[in-house]
Design brief:
With about 450 residues, the protein is an alpha/beta fold. It is built from 15 helices and 16 strands. The protein has a 7-stranded mixed sheet, sandwiched between helices. Strand 9, helix 8 and strand 10 form a beta-alpha-beta unit. Helix 5 packs across helix 10 and helix 13 packs parallel to helix 15. The longest helix has 25 residues. About 45% of the residues are buried. The structure holds pyridoxal-5'-phosphate. The site of pyridoxal-5'-phosphate has 14 residues, from helix 5.
Length: about 450
């Protein structure tokens, strides 16, 4: 039988063949099998013509996918996408609801820059001057002066030596650990870190310690136990995207000092607006400069287009340019996106007004919702999870909200753990007081209708 078969239990799934394993044989007599979690679903004899076998395999593939989809739907965690027909902003239009002006409370557009006129103008100018894209990775012929300008701006903003751009923060997280850590090293990761960190860590060979969420004594215990590592690296989200809770970075850095460990933080939900001047979780904890490596995104507060980065010691950035696979093997950021990023940093560097307005909006929403009887997760952050706990309730709740002109989304497994379903509200600078009050009123109306509050 085929040798190239992966097993789910041991996670040695053969990615190349994406579940279709194959044996070598005569061109027209290849044997094809579909592997499911537990068994080989179908094996088509070698003598059957290739075209027939392909159709046969595809129908098996459809069957497997349909089965999985059925399970997802039965569990109430199916995620359907709503289609927006306007720019991203606090006021949007949505297919199927054109008659309504929809207030958007679920984007990461924290500073309202996604459709800011200065950002759009900068992107348009870059499109004219530099074109749509580079048709190249950075090291071949994909680096323009604006890519270097943005990297310098990012490094200066964070007060670090240098920065490296990636197509996304997911890529920045997927690429860094494999480059930095070997089997002589050890990594300590908060159990609720973002999926991209989890995937990035899977790719590296370091010894892995998963510490309990935000639990400093568990982290310390694991640091104490880990002897003989060449490098120790503590890895955490600055702000956890599902819960809006904040890593105790001050304590993490103290432990880093005590046990000789480096500290890495993902600032996707902090850069540009969190901390007094938007420098992020380090600034929030008053420890600017203590963290060793920062990854973050341009796809949320900083213009909302796309792009991610690592900023830190020069030698690390130099090494990532040589070895970081998502950097070496994926296209350069498009010039309009780069120009939007540069403009976003300029806006944040020039004034603190947007971040202050966001703090005001966050407090207004959190206070009113708590007073109305809802349980709101996290603290101090514009991510406000309205806890509902039940899968089906969350999706019905979100539909009822949309029908009344408030766009929010239910978050269920696998995005959050089973039984921790919530509607994640996110505040933006672009919301007015009236917008927030309207959203709270609608939450109260729907909450009473669905017996969430009395
Ligand atoms: N890190 C965190 C904590 C995130 O929440 C996200 C996005 O959801 C990412 C990384 C990935 O960012 P990007 O959209 O730039 O890939």
């Amino acid at each position: 039988m085929c040798q190239n078969v992966g097993t789910w239990g041991r996670r040695t799934w053969n990615k190349k063949s994406a579940g279709l394993s194959y044996c070598c044989g005569l061109q027209n007599t290849l044997s094809l099998s579909i592997i499911t979690k537990n068994s080989i679903l179908r094996t088509v004899p070698r003598c059957v013509p290739v075209l027939y076998r392909r159709a046969h395999c595809i129908s098996s593939l459809r069957e497997i996918a349909r089965e999985e989809i059925g399970k997802i739907k039965d569990s109430g965690t199916w995620k359907s996408e709503r289609v927006i027909t306007s720019k991203q902003g606090s006021l949007i239009t949505v297919v199927g609801h054109q008659q309504l002006e929809i207030l958007n409370f679920c984007s990461n557009n924290y500073l309202g820059l996604a459709s800011h006129p200065h950002i759009i103008a900068a992107a348009q100018a870059a499109l004219q001057k530099y074109g749509a894209g580079l048709s190249s990775v950075r090291f071949i012929c994909g680096t323009q002066d604006i890519h270097k300008e943005l990297e310098h701006k990012i490094a200066n903003f964070h007060g670090r030596d240098d920065a490296i751009l990636y197509p996304s923060c997911f890529d920045a997280n997927a690429g860094i650990f494999e480059v930095l850590l070997t089997d002589r090293d050890a990594v300590f990761s908060d159990e609720l870190n973002h999926a991209s960190i989890i995937d990035g860590l899977r790719l590296c060979k370091a010894r892995k310690h998963r510490y309990l969420h935000l639990n400093m004594s568990d982290l310390e215990q694991r640091l104490r136990e880990e002897k003989n590592a060449r490098l120790k690296l503590i890895v955490t989200d600055g702000v956890f995207s599902m819960d809006g809770d904040i890593a105790p970075l001050d304590k993490i850095c103290e432990l880093g000092d005590k046990y000789n460990a480096l500290v890495f933080v993902d600032e996707a939900h902090a850069t540009g607006f969190f901390g007094k001047t938007g420098r992020g979780t380090e600034e929030y904890h008053n420890i600017i400069g203590k963290v060793d490596i920062i990854n973050s995104t341009l796809g949320k507060a900083m213009g909302g287009a796309s792009g991610g980065y690592t900023t830190g010691p020069k030698e690390l950035i130099d090494l990532l340019r040589q070895r970081g696979r998502p950097y070496l093997f994926s296209n350069s950021l498009p010039p309009p996106v780069v120009a939007a990023g540069i403009k976003a940093f300029d806006i944040v560097l020039n004034s603190n007004n947007l971040a202050e307005r966001l703090r005001h909006n966050t407090k207004r929403f959190r206070d009113a919702m708590t007073k109305a009887g809802f349980t709101i997760g996290g603290s101090d952050h514009p991510i406000c999870p309205v806890m509902l706990y039940e899968e089906r309730l969350a999706s019905v709740f979100a539909d009822e909200m949309l029908a009344r002109g408030i766009y929010v989304i239910g978050f269920s497994y696998p995005v959050v753990p089973n039984g921790k379903t919530r509607i994640r509200v996110q505040l933006s600078t672009s919301h007015s007081d009236e917008d927030i009050d309207k959203a709270v009123n609608v939450f109260v109306e729907v909450g009473k209708k669905l017996d969430v509050i009395s």
